[in-house]
Amino acid sequence: MKNTMNHQTQTETTPPQNGAVYSELSLKFANRKEVLKSALLGAFIGLAIIVPGVSGSAVAIIFRLYEKLLFALGNLFRRFGECLRFLVPIVLGAFVGLIIGFFSVRGVINKAPFAVIALFAGLMFGAYPSVTDQIKGERPTPLRILLFLLGMAVPISFSLISIFVASEGITITEWKLPHLFVFLCLGFGVAVTQLVPGLSATALLMMAGCFTPLMNSVGFFFWEAHPEVFIIYGVLIFGFFAGLLIVSKGLSDLIERRRAPAFFVISGLSLGSITTMFFNPEILEVYAGWTLPSAKSLTELIIGLALFAAGAAIAYAFVRFERRHAAVENS
Length: 331
What we know:
Elements: E1 10-17, E2 20-25, H1 32-48, H2 56-62, H3 66-74, H4 80-111, H5 113-132, H6 142-164, H7 177-195, H8 201-207, H9 211-216, H10 220-225, H11 229-257, H12 259-276, H13 281-289, H14 297-330
Antiparallel strand pairs: 1-2
Helix pairs in contact: 1-2, 1-4, 2-5, 3-4, 3-11, 4-5, 5-12, 5-14, 6-8, 6-12, 7-8, 7-11, 11-12
């Protein structure tokens, strides 16, 4: 039997057209728990911009909010009030996650990078079954298998490019007017990474050589010395929100019309994303450091593996809880 995602929030469905089913999703929160879940999703989206390899949209699938998130963004102007109410907790959570990522997680990563990456990778790995749940019961045709493999190849290719072909960096203090178009495109690209599971904003910024300069630009002393950087921030933010609105609508329509093939690609993207968490420029620097005589590589490896296992167990327990919750609602 072919699987269909939990559409208990569906309120109306129009007749199929050209094999497509168009549904209107209710974005109302049933209780405070759903509001908190949305805020937590936002926090992960904010962290995903900072932590290498983390995909905010993959977390949205785990929380069973991915399609609602795409729908709310893609229909923001058509159903403004309802979509805005749904997005507010996510936006607030994303802001908190971004701030935490800048001032806390980045500091922890600098001190124990492998342990932090391993923990996040474990969380993503343990939650991966919630992604494959979307294609449970679907026939794995040769085309769908190919789509799955292509999906895996995308984040791995991103990581390889960021390692071997990355730019040396874009100057954010001595820029000219044409550079603003580059930052506009980067903002748009970061939005795409937050909507397409498996893509990493960090990897994209690393490929452009912008990740370290942007991270180093966040601070009162830098802002005082280079106030023009706020123009760069503004262009990035504009491109980001433009990307969210444009790409979300396209993805939402794609999932409506070609659900099974789309989720075969998404499953590959998510698995590829987990792989690249252990294969990106920042983590390779950690591996290189383990070769130094003073390195405590074995200790770091053991701690990282333990955190990976703990993260995977916690996330999988959450997946099982969500499955039982969905089964109760559908019964």
